[in-house]
Amino acid sequence: MNKKAFTCGLLFGGIVGAAAALLTAPSSGRELRNQIKETKGEWVKVANELKEDAIDIKNSVVQATKEGQEIIKEIAGDVKVAVSEWQKSIEPNKEALQEEMKEIRETIAQLEEKLQKEKTTIS
């Protein structure tokens, strides 16, 4: 986009500068008209080149957008697969941890019962 803005600015500045130079130059009306006719072709050529550059930039942006969308879709798919594989890989550990936590809870409950019994027998 910066190239496009620069090119537009350059073209516009060139046109304004040329017009100012032509209008302020000390020449007769006939000479001025001849100079305008001679430079008209050059300005048309520059305008056409600018148009072609703008079309190229537009096409590049469209292509980059399409490629970006495809890459994002691929990355999202890869992330989903990685998360799924990670979940599967931790499943055995998860079950083992849950079993150990259950055993710890049971042991705590047994200890609490034992303490309660000892408290009542001591009192």
Question: Between the first and last Cα atoms, what is the distance in angstroms?
Answer: 88 Å
- Count all strands and give the number: 0
Total domain count:
1
The percentage helix is over 70%
The assigned structural class equals: mainly alpha
Total helix count?
Answer: 2
Mean pLDDT: 83
Strand content: under 5%
The H/E string reads: HH
Radius of gyration: 40 Å
- Main sheet summary: none
Name the overall outline.
Answer: rod-shaped
Which segments are poorly predicted (pLDDT under 50) over 5 or more consecutive residues?
A: none
Signal peptide: 1-20
Protein name: YtxH domain-containing protein
Pfam family, one: YtxH
Coiled coil: 94-121
Explained architecture:
By secondary structure, the chain is mostly helical. The protein is 95% helix and 0% strand. It contains two helices and no strands. It has helices at residues 2-24, 29-122. Helix 1 runs antiparallel to helix 2. It is rod-shaped, with a radius of gyration of 40 Å. The termini are far apart. Residues 1-20 form the signal peptide. Residues 94-121 form a coiled coil. InterPro entries: Desiccation-related_membrane, YtxH.
